Structures are given as structure tokens and as C-alpha cells.
């Protein structure tokens, strides 16, 4: 912190910028320590803001060399956050503003703006990084075509748009599509290209290139193939074509986020580009496919139509996440993808919604916008699109999207614009639906049932009651519209009502189904049709019935999941024994060869320790991390014994013959086989894991086998061998760090993490490496919350150390403490002390200050 408390920015204070930009010209004279940036910006008065206004531009950490207006020098003195030229120093009408500034990319460890990574220059401008490059109205509603000249002795010089000219030591790029500054990008380095091409359906030939360091070329094939499939899919499903002659992707080792959709020049964290069977897992391949698609899809949903202000971030992110999820469903298994997405939503977004960091999908205020790139904006934002689609139907959705692209192309839009498009295209009033954007919190949905027999058949009635608990700053929550997908089954297992969407709009509402021969078994919230918590007491028998018969794969999985959760909760709370009928139901499911192996693998996965802690806290019980860990381990070992014969058969049958292929079917077989291994490892003393580790020809099996060995307290030799083999591969060494901490015994986790933090390869300024170690510690629930408090202290020490170097990553990782009010007084006191220590750190960044303050505020609420 500097001297004053940082002030929030509020949605209610939005004003259009007083000027429009006709053209932005930039020249970069690159130098690691003293890069010169020359800008010429053609401003016009903005009719939306009549009158005379000062010219205020953002700028941080810039050394101003010279500034001119229409060629005449102006004396302007920058302050800490920008530069103001008074209205009376500006001509009437249009004018050119020119500036020359100097910046130091080599000193930029925050990785925002222009920085160096492994000897190359690269940029990250979203959300507010461009202000570290030059003085500019660094806000998304100011859009302009950019012309960029780069002067450097680096062999490869890239920017947005199309290449227009180049010579010895320079290159020029022109981007005809008006864009905000956050989509600006520049890369200069010693890179090689993996090239391909794509012809759009209207016949434009697009040159595709993935730029990597020499030696990495053979790990780009999957990313390139994913890109071409994404380009085709967006044409087929959304009618969207690519609009430049080139599309470039660059892989960068030092990157705060996953990837960035800069127009025509996407910049990627290298872990989301580089993959080979030996170095990447099936999960890595799937993630690469989805992130490549996500960033590509932004070309229309984000770039051609952008956000008016950062409060509207969900406009581009919620929609684009929804689009990439649909893409993955089409490329792979739709039910499996849906289950994976809901697992993630519950683990990250529900957790966020239930804690001190809860905020609406469209927040109302922020201190640091980087802190709002959250699961709520992204994942819940995507759920809202899914609900809209369900409410207006597939046809209505397509009409609305066509209208959205037609009406808002080239604009910076709002959530109001987005909803208006749906209203105009479908005639539906979405005033109530809008609450999903403005109100934080996860609604709870209670269900009551009634059955009235009758001569003409009986009537079955479902009554729903919705309630959303208070969240910070929002106590009262009016009812929302909730699409509830329901199906009904006969007691013999036949479906008598196929999936039907009920629209709940009241706080309490009933839906009746007359003319039924017998009382049905309901399957509620099929496909997870709304991001709510379903509160329904249902019997063990009903759940096993749905696990066996539900035609909706999501609810079938959900039935098994809730069975396992209930078994675990009663073991934790009441010292109950594991349930034999549960084990039998699970055995029937996982040996059902008609089911997709990937689906069966998901069914074998027990709820995580963090899920169980949340479930206990929800039910008013203080979670004890060690007990949760011991009980969950106990159930897993019990299931291993009960299902041993079946698991051995699965382990043998699901072996996939070489060569390795990352396709969904092969990955599903491996997932089921490795799920079986996870159980068998508990009773075979590591025999299978050791043998698989020795023979595996791919990272999926190799990493899973190593995890099993560490779980069993073995694997010292294998850990060393893994390191020796991969020590020159940064991405694999990230896994090496993460596995050892994530699978450490709870009482050893902090110690293992501390020992690894001393390792010469722990390059803590690299965000991937930092997250590998620290993220794994936070994810080791019983280890992180070990009663010694060692992990809390260690983690806080490292956040304090990282903050001055990289505030963005520090702030995000402080969310590991967001669940702290769940726990007992002793743990709360320890966490409070650590959070207090972080907040009192001199010169703490405003990013971390905001996060830690919000987390600490939970206790007063
Ligand atoms: Zn995105």
C-alpha cells in the first residue's frame, strides 16, 4: 500500500470517454532495459460527451520523453496513474497526440504490459497492462485500428492484424479491425514457426502459425489440429468466419494466465500449447483443445464485440466459456464433459459463492479488476448462457446470437445489450432473468412431493421453494427464474415423462403431472439445468434406483455421487461403517460394459475432502480435516477390497495398446484403468503402480503411477528417476513439484513443500512453477489445514515474498484462505493471524490488499 487505502471503481459511475480514436500508430524501438515507444493517436471529440474536456490518459511506470499536440510540444507532467492535458490546451475538433516514452521490460516481473520471458519480448495487456506501455485511454470502450512498427534485431517480430512490410531489423503490422488497447500484442524473439493453413468457407486462405522456441516444434501438432477444428466448428455452429490473413499463436513460459485472445496474435502459456504423449497427460491434451478453441472463439465474442467496461467481463467470458464447453461436447463425450464442468463449478464457483469472495456475475465495484477473473464470472457466467438457451430453445438461441453479431459488431457492449437481443429475437421478457447477473450467491432449491391416487390415474406434484443465502453486501435476494429439467420414471425403470423443462419464477411453486398409473420416481435437475444446490431428502433405495435406471447420464452420475457423499458424511459424523449396498451399486455400475469408460471413471471418483468439508459446514458441523481425510481413505480402501475382482478385471481389460493416442475413447479407457489402479494400489502394496511406472510410454500413466506410489508412502526411487529423465523439461518438472506436494501425507505436506522450495529448480518467479508447488499445497486439504499451522505459515511467507514481484498471481493465490470461516476456532485464529500479517506488509500491492481484506471481512459478516 502506498499512503492511502485504494478506492473502488463503480459500475454506477460509468461515463463514456470524451474522445474517440480514429487511428493509433505505435513504433517500438526494443531494448531490454530502455525500450522507446512512440505513439501517434488521432483523437476526435465524442458526441456522447458534449462540451470541452481535459484529455486524460492512463499511464503507469512510464518515463515521458516528449509529448506533442498537432506537432507542437506540450508541457505535461505525468502523475502516478496517468497524464492530463487540460481542455484549454487542446484544439477544437480532431487533433493528433504524440508521445515518446521509455520503459524497462527487463524489470517487469509483474508480467503485465511489455516484459521479457526467456530472452523474448512479449505482452499481456488485459485488463490494464497497456498503460505500462504508453499513455492511452486504457479502457475497453475506446476502440481504434492500430498500425504497429517494431524495430529490433530479434529475428521474429509480431503484432496484431496482417503483416504489411518488413526489412532488416524492422517489421510493420496493420490491424484493420478497431480494438481496445487490452487486445494489443507484440512479440519479438528467436522463435520458430510450425505452419499450416485454413480456408474459410467463403474462400479466404488463412496462414496459421504456432511460434515456439527451437526444439519445441514437435510438440505443437495437437494445438494446431485443435485450432483448425475450432475454426471449422465456429463456422458450422455459429456461422462465424475468421477475418484476417494470418492467425498467430505464441507459446510463452512466463505467463500469469492460461492464454490471451489478442486480435490475430494469441499468446499462450506454453503448458497450453506444447504436448506430446511422453510429456502431456490426457487431461493436458483436453485442456489444450479447449483453451485453443476458447481463445479463437473470442475473435467474435470478445474482439469483434467487446465489453463496454470491465464490469461486463462476463459478456465475453461467460459466453466464450459456454462456447468452448459446447465445442468440447461435440469433439468428445457430452455427458462426461457436463459432469466435469459441474464438478469444477461446484469445487470452485460454489465455494466462492459461499464465502467472503462471493460477488455477482456482473460485479458492481472493484478495487483491482484482476481480482475479478473468477470462477463466478467465467464458469457461472457460462451457466447463465446455458440457462438462457434452455429457456428460449435452440432456435431462439441461434436467432438471438445472429442478431447479437449483426447489431453489435464493432461495438463495446453491455449485459443489457445482450439481454435485449434475446428479448427482441424471442419476444421473451428477461427482467427477472437479469437477477442472475446482478445477484450473488447460489440459490438453494427445496423439493416437496405429493401423490394423489385417482380414478383417471393419480396426480404427482412437485413443489419447489427457492432461497438464496445472503452474500457480502446483498442481504435480500428476490426469487429468480430457474429452469428445472425434470423426468419421471416408473418403479419398473421405464421413463414415463421424458426431460421437460419447468420454469420456476416464484419463491414457492408447484408443478403437477396428472394421469399417472403409479407414483413415479422423479429425476430432478437433469443435466444440471441450473447452478443451484438441490436440497432434497431422498432414500438410499431411490438413489440406487436412479443410479441403475435414470436415462439422464448426469443425474445417473449424480445419484452415485450423492450416495457416496451420504455414506462418507455418516461415517464422519456418526462413526458409521462403510455401506455394503453402496459398494454393490457401485460395482454394478462400473462393470456395466455398455457404459462409456470415461463415465465409469467419473463414477469411481469419491467426493473430494474439500467437498466434504463444505457439505459438513453446510449442515452445521465444523469440519475436521484429519478426520475427513482418514475416513475418506478408509472408504476407498474398503471399496478396493469389496470391488477387488472387478477392479482387477477393469485394470487388465482397459489397457490400451500402443501407440498412444489422445483421442477421447482412448483417454476414457485410460481414465477408468487408472481409477481402478488408484483403488488397487491400496491393497497391492504398490506392485501395479511400480510396474506401470517402469513400463509406461506416456505421461498420463507415468504421472498417475507416480502419484499412487507417493500416496502409499513409497516412490523415492521413482521420484528421483522422474526428475533425472525430465529435468530439462519445465512443464514436466512442474508436475514433478506438484505431485510430491499434492500426494504428501497430511502431517508431512508443509515439510515436503518447504524442502522442495529449497530445490534449485524452484524458480519461484515463474507463475507455473510457483502455482505447481503452492497450488498443490493448498489443494492438499488435510495437509494445508494441518493443525500444526505449518502450511498456513509457509504459504503466507511465500505470498508475502511474491507480492512485490507479481501482485496478480499473489492475489489470486490468496483465495486458498477463502474457506477459513468453516473451521474450528484454533485454525481460524491461525489463519486470521497469517492474513493479518500479509495485510500489514509494507507496500503491499492493491491486488493483494483487496483480496486479503475481503477474506478477512468474512468474520464480521
Ligand atoms: Zn476468455
What does this structure look like?
The mean pLDDT is 97. The protein has an eight-stranded mixed beta sheet, with no helix packed on it. Strand 19 and strand 20 (265-269) form a beta hairpin. It has 26 helices and 30 strands. Helix 19 (730-742) runs parallel beside helix 21 (767-779) and helix 25 packs antiparallel against helix 26 (846-856). 40% of the residues lie in helices and 21% in strands. The radius of gyration is 28 Å and the shape is globular. The two termini are 25 Å apart. It is of the alpha+beta class and 861 residues long. The structure holds zinc ion (ZN). Residues 294, 298, 317, 320 line the site of zinc ion.
- Summed over residues and divided by their number, the pLDDT gives a mean of 97
Q: In percent, how helical is the residue content?
A: 40-55%
Described by strand count, sense and barrel closure, the largest sheet is: 8 strands, mixed
Strand content range:
15-25%
Strand order of the largest sheet: 6-5-8-3-2-11-14-13
- Counted by DSSP, the helix tally is 26
Number of strands: 30
Cα gyration radius (Å): 28 Å
Q: Termini separation (Å)?
A: 25 Å
What are the low-pLDDT stretches, counting only 5+ consecutive residues below 50? none
Shape: globular
Query: Which structural category do the helix and sheet elements fall into?
Result: alpha+beta
Bound molecules: zinc ion
Amino acid at each position: 500500500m502506498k499512503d492511502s487505502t485504494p478506492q473502488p471503481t463503480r459500475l454506477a459511475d460509468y461515463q463514456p470517454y470524451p474522445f474517440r480514436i480514429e487511428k493509433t500508430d505505435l513504433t517500438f524501438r526494443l531494448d531490454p532495459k530502455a525500450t522507446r515507444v512512440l505513439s501517434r493517436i488521432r483523437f476526435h471529440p465524442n458526441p456522447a460527451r458534449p462540451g470541452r474536456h481535459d484529455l486524460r490518459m492512463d499511464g503507469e511506470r512510464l518515463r515521458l520523453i516528449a509529448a506533442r499536440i498537432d506537432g507542437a510540444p506540450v508541457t505535461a507532467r505525468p502523475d502516478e496513474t496517468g497524464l492530463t492535458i487540460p481542455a484549454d490546451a487542446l484544439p477544437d475538433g480532431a487533433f493528433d497526440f504524440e508521445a515518446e516514452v521509455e520503459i524497462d521490460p527487463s524489470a517487469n516481473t509483474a508480467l503485465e504490459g511489455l516484459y521479457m520471458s526467456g530472452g523474448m519480448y512479449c505482452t499481456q495487456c488485459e485488463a490494464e497492462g497497456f498503460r505500462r506501455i504508453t499513455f492511452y485511454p486504457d479502457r475497453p470502450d475506446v476502440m481504434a485500428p492500430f498500425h504497429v512498427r517494431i524495430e529490433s534485431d530479434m529475428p521474429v517480430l509480431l503484432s496484431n492484424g496482417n503483416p504489411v512490410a518488413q526489412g532488416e531489423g524492422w517489421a510493420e503490422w496493420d490491424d484493420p479491425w478497431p480494438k481496445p488497447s487490452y487486445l494489443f500484442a507484440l512479440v519479438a524473439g528467436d522463435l520458430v514457426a510450425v505452419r499450416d493453413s485454413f480456408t474459410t468457407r467463403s474462400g479466404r486462405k488463412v496462414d496459421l502459425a504456432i511460434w515456439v522456441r527451437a526444439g519445441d516444434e514437435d510438440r505443437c501438432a495437437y494445438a494446431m489440429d485443435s485450432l483448425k477444428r475450432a475454426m471449422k466448428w465456429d463456422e458450422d455452429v455459429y456461422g462465424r468466419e475468421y477475418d484476417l490473413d494470418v492467425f498467430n499463436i505464441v507459446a510463452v513460459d512466463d505467463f500469469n494466465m492460461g492464454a490471451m485472445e489478442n486480435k490475430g496474435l494469441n499468446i499462450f502459456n506454453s503448458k497450453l500449447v506444447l504436448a506430446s504423449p511422453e510429456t502431456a497427460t490426457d487431461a493436458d491434451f483436453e485442456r489444450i483443445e479447449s483453451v485453443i478453441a476458447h481463445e479463437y472463439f473470442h475473435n467474435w465474442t470478445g474482439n469483434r464485440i467487446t465489453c463496454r467496461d470491465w464490469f461486463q467481463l462476463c459478456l465475453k467470458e461467460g459466453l466464450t466459456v459456454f462456447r468452448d464447453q459446447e465445442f468440447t461436447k461435440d469433439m468428445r463425450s457430452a455427458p462426461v464433459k457436463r459432469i466435469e464442468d459441474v464438478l469444477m463449478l461446484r469445487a470452485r464457483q460454489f465455494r466462492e459463492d459461499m464465502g467472503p469472495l462471493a460477488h455477482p456475475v456482473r460485479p458492481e465495484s472493484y478495487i483491482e479488476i484482476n481480482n475479478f477473473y473468477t470462477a463466478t464470472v467465467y464458469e457461472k457466467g457460462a451457466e447463465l448462457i446455458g440457462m438462457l438457451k434452455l429457456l428460449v430453445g435452440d432456435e431462439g438461441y441461434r436467432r438471438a446470437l445472429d442478431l447479437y453479431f449483426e447489431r453489435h459488431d464493432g461495438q463495446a457492449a453491455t449485459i443489457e445489450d445482450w439481454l435485449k437481443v434475446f428479448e427482441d429475437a424471442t419476444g421473451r421478457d428477461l427482467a427477472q432473468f437479469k437477477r442472475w447477473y446482478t445477484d450473488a450467491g447460489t440459490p438453494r432449491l427445496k423439493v416437496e412431493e405429493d401423490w394423489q391416487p385417482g380414478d383417471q390415474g393419480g396426480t404427482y406434484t412437485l413443489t419447489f421453494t427457492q432461497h438464496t443465502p445472503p452474500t457480502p453486501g446483498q442481504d435480500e435476494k428476490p426469487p429468480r427464474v430457474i429452469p428445472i429439467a425434470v423426468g419421471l420414471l416408473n418403479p419398473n425403470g421405464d421413463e414415463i415423462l421424458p426431460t421437460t423443462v419447468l420454469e420456476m419464477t416464484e419463491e414457492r411453486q408447484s408443478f403437477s403431472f396428472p394421469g399417472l398409473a403409479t407414483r413415479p420416481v422423479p429425476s430432478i435437475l437433469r443435466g444440471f439445468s441450473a447452478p443451484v444446490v438441490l436440497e432434497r431428502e431422498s432414500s438410499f433405495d431411490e438413489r440406487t434406483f436412479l443410479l441403475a435406471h435414470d436415462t439422464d447420464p448426469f443425474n445417473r452420475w449424480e445419484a452415485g455421487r450423492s450416495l457416496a457423499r451420504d455414506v462418507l458424511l455418516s461415517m464422519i459424523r456418526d462413526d458409521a461403517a462403510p455401506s455394503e449396498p453402496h459398494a454393490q451399486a457401485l460395482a454394478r455400475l462400473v462393470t456395466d460394459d455398455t457404459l462409456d469408460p470415461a463415465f465409469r471413471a467419473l463414477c469411481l471418483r469419491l467426493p473430494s475432502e474439500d467437498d466434504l468439508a463444505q457439505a459438513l459446514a453446510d449442515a452445521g458441523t465444523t469440519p475436521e480435516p484429519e478426520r475427513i481425510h482418514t475416513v475418506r481413505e478408509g472408504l476407498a480402501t474398503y471399496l478396493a477390497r469389496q470391488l477387488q475382482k472387478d477392479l482387477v478385471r477393469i485394470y487388465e481389460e482397459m489397457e490400451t495398446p500402443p501407440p498412444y493416442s489422445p483421442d477421447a475413447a482412448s483417454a476414457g479407457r485410460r481414465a477408468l484403468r487408472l481409477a481402478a489402479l488408484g483403488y488397487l494400489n491400496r491393497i497391492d502394496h504398490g506392485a501395479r503402480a511400480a510396474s506401470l511406472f517402469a513400463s509406461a510410454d506416456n505421461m498420463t500413466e507415468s504421472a498417475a503411477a507416480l502419484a499412487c506410489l507417493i500416496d502409499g508412502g513409497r516412490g523415492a526411487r521413482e521420484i528421483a528417476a522422474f526428475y533425472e529423465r525430465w529435468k530439462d523439461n519445465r512443464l514436466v518438472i512442474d508436475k514433478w513439484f506438484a505431485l510430491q506436494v499434492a500426494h504428501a501425507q497430511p502431517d508431512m505436506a508443509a515439510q515436503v513443500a518447504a524442502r522442495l522450495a529449497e530445490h534449485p529448480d524452484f524458480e519461484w518467479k515463474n507463475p507455473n512453477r510457483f502455482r505447481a508447488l503452492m497450488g498443490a499445497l493448498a489443494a492438499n486439504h488435510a495437509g494445508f489445514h494441518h493443525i500444526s499451522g505449518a502450511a498456513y505459515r509457509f504459504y503466507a511467507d511465500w505470498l508475502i515474498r511474491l507480492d512485490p514481484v507479481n501482485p496478480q498471481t499473489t492475489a489470486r493465490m490468496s483465495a486458498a484462505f477463502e474457506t477459513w470461516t468453516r473451521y474450528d476456532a484454533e485454525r481460524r485464529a491461525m489463519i486470521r493471524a497469517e492474513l493479518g500479517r500479509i495485510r500489514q506488509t509494507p507496500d503491499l500491492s492493491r491486488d493483494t490488499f483487496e483480496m486479503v481484506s475481503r477474506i478477512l471481512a468474512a468474520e464480521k459478516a
